[in-house]
């Protein structure tokens, strides 16, 4: 009887903010939660690449603020969600995943990948993964090197070395190269030995931890303390804050890959892109006869090689070439496609000027659904609220505002102090200042309502929670 090959543990890193894809991607709702390369959100698309008989349920390491977004988008996949109390780059995140993976056995092969990359050739990806997993079981830490299709300056490069004996398709790594200028990138592509650094890694938990112990023992000790002090809540693993925050912020490339003697690379052509900018998304998207990519209600007249996306407002572009135009409900980005890497500078400038649009959308997501601001005036505010079937808001009160709720569609059960009130479409309820209240959607369809707030202070921090299904303070 042949022994079954151990399953691979997908580890998805979902801590990025995707600044260069502003105004769509923002800290509150970054690019991995948006459908960009397909009709699926990027996180769900990433998880779908690692499903089937050869894989364990995924482990996702994410920002604590995004935990319910991750849980919702990976519903039904059995995902284990590890919550970082603070961002500390990739090495501490991977260390935490490796320590938790050891629970399934120290020889567990981890496939570590970002939540926000695109892959178009899945058979080629899985073939490369088979080669990488074999090398990982032989003690290697393997990265995937993407065969360049252009002299890209936005990626780091790997210079591939000699083939490794007994490991088909796997090569040693001669060296890592930082993002080059255009001339050097052209040399790399012409030479044929350099590959794009994809940021995907395959290794066993035991080998990764041994190398972290060798090169970054203080960092590993901090993360070990965070894992040992973690709280487990349903599918969430909440890393202990104090030891994790004490860990240095360092990438896995600097912590291990550029120092270890066990590094290896699998060269691959899998239609990969990190979608790190609007120009990168234009590159991989289907285009019209004029080389344009349009998403949403967009009209183009004599435009060439443009990327235009609108999230709702009719957007017209006339006579532009090589332009990027992105329109959301509260912001517009317009630029030459060659300046795509400079969006980050714009976001930093918006932050410096105190513009909340730099980091927040008008629509705010919560574990029970979402809300969006419609009108904000002096002493009043109007919001549209949507509550998922079976979900409920916290039991709460406010010190500075009263609220009116009007149901647009669906059914609501409202608790108001000692009362319990059922509301249907076109019915309303008044919640006076200071009353203890809660709303629940008992139905099978989303509950949509309009909320009118009136009071001296309308901030989201004017909430006293008495009870919450989702463990929020």
From TrEMBL:
EC number: 2.7.7.13
Record domain Nucleotidyl transferase: where: 10-287
GO molecular function: mannose-1-phosphate guanylyltransferase (GTP) activity; mannose-6-phosphate isomerase activity
Domain Mannose-6-phosphate isomerase type II C-terminal: 354-468
Enzyme class of the recorded protein, top EC level: transferase
Residue span(s) of domain MannoseP isomerase/GMP-like beta-helix: 300-350
Keywords: GTP-binding, Isomerase, Nucleotide-binding, Nucleotidyltransferase, Transferase
Pfam family, one: NTP_transferase
SUPFAM superfamilies listed in its UniProt record: Nucleotide-diphospho-sugar transferases (SSF53448), RmlC-like cupins (SSF51182)
InterPro entries to which the protein is assigned, alphabetical: GMPP_N, Man1P_GuaTrfase/Man6P_Isoase, Man6P_isomerase-2_C, ManC/GMP-like_b-helix, Mannose-6P_isomerase_type2, NTP_transferase_dom, Nucleotide-diphossugar_trans, RmlC-like_jellyroll
Reaction catalysis annotation: alpha-D-mannose 1-phosphate + GTP + H(+) = GDP-alpha-D-mannose + diphosphate
Family: Belongs to the mannose-6-phosphate isomerase type 2 family.
NCBIfam families named among the record's database cross-references: GMP_PMI (TIGR01479)
Name of the protein this chain belongs to: mannose-1-phosphate guanylyltransferase
Organism: Neoroseomonas terrae
Lineage of the organism: Bacteria, Pseudomonadati, Pseudomonadota, Alphaproteobacteria, Acetobacterales
């Amino acid at each position: 009887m042949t022994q079954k090959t151990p399953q691979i543990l997908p580890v998805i890193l979902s801590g990025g903010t995707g600044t260069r894809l502003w105004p769509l991607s923002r800290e509150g709702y970054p690019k991995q939660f948006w459908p960009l390369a397909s009709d699926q959100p990027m996180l769900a698309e990433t998880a779908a690449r690692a499903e089937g008989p050869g894989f364990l349920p995924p482990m996702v390491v994410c920002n604590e603020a995004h935990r319910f977004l991750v849980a919702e988008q990976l519903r039904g996949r059995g995902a284990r969600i590890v919550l970082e109390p603070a961002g500390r780059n990739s090495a501490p995140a991977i260390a935490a995943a490796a320590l938790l993976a050891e629970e399934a056995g120290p020889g567990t092969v981890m496939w570590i990948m970002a939540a926000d990359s695109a892959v178009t050739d899945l058979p080629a990806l899985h073939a490369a993964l088979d080669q990488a997993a074999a090398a990982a079981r032989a003690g290697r830490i393997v990265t995937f090197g993407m065969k360049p299709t252009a002299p890209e300056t936005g990626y780091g490069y790997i210079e591939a070395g000699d083939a490794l004996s007994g490991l088909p398709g796997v090569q040693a790594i001669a060296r890592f190269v930082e993002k080059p200028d255009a001339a050097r990138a052209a040399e790399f592509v012409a030479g044929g030995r350099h590959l794009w650094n994809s940021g995907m890694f395959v290794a066993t938990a035991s080998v990764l931890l041994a190398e972290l112990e060798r090169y970054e023992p203080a960092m590993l000790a901090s993360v070990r303390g965070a894992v040992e002090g973690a709280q487990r809540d349903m599918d969430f693993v909440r890393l202990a804050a104090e030891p994790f925050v004490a860990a240095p912020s360092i990438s896995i490339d600097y912590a291990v890959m550029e120092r270890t003697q066990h590094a290896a690379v699998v060269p691959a052509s899998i239609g990969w892109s990190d979608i790190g900018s609007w120009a990168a998304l234009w590159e991989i998207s289907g285009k019209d006869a004029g080389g344009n990519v349009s998403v949403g209600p967009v009209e183009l007249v004599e435009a060439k090689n443009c990327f235009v996306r609108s999230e709702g407002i009719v957007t017209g572009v006339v006579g532009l070439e090589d332009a990027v135009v992105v329109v959301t409900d509260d912001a517009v980005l317009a630029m030459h496609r060659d300046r795509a890497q400079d969006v980050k500078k714009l976001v930093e400038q918006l932050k410096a000027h105190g513009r909340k649009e730099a980091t927040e959308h008008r629509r705010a997501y919560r574990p029970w659904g979402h809300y969006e601001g419609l009108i904000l005036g002096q002493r009043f505010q109007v919001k549209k609220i949507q509550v998922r079937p079976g979900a409920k808001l916290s039991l709460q009160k406010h010190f500075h505002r009263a609220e009116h709720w009007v149901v647009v569609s669906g059914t609501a059960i409202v608790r108001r102090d000692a009362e319990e009130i059922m509301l249907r479409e076109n019915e309303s309820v008044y919640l006076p200042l200071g009353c203890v209240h809660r709303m629940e959607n008992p139905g099978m369809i989303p509950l949509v309502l309009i909320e009118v707030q009136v009071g001296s202070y309308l901030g989201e921090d004017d909430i006293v929670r008495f009870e919450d299904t989702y463990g929020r303070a």
